[in-house]
Amino acid sequence: MSGAALTLLYDRTEGWAAGLRLAALSLAGHPDPERFAAEFGGSERTVAEYLLCEVLERQGEEARRLLLRTSVLERVTANWLTC
């Protein structure tokens, strides 16, 4: 993979370690790494897989229930921006 492609992946993930890890997982065995880097985005299936395997499954049942209950909002406001 070229330096330009690596820079593109770094930019697309904003240097986020988990994003780079997801890119590396997705890249493994990819027939065209340059094309992969050009098309990589946060909607990759591996993002959901990462969250499920690396984050949620490592939590206890009580923590998973809390995360589920607090992950869906009835209303979102931007009032906190004015603080």
Short description:
The chain has about 80 residues and is an all-alpha fold. The chain is built from five helices and no strands.
Describe the protein:
The chain is mainly alpha-helical and 83 residues long. The protein has five helices and no strands. Helix 1 (3-13) packs parallel to helix 3 (33-39). The longest helix has 11 residues, at 3-13. The relative contact order is 0.11. The mean pLDDT is 77.
List strands and helices in order, with pairings:
Elements: H1 3-13, H2 17-27, H3 33-39, H4 45-55, H5 61-70
Helix pairs in contact: 1-3
Task: Give the SSE string.
Answer: HHHHH
> How far apart, in Å, are the first and last alpha carbons?
45 Å
Form type: flat
Which residue ranges are poorly predicted, with pLDDT under 50 across at least 5 consecutive positions? none
What structural class do the secondary elements suggest? mainly alpha
Percent range of helical residues: 55-70%
- Rg from Cα: 17 Å
Q: How many extended strands?
A: 0
Give the DSSP E fraction (strand runs of 2 or more residues): under 5%
Features:
83 residues; mainly alpha; flat
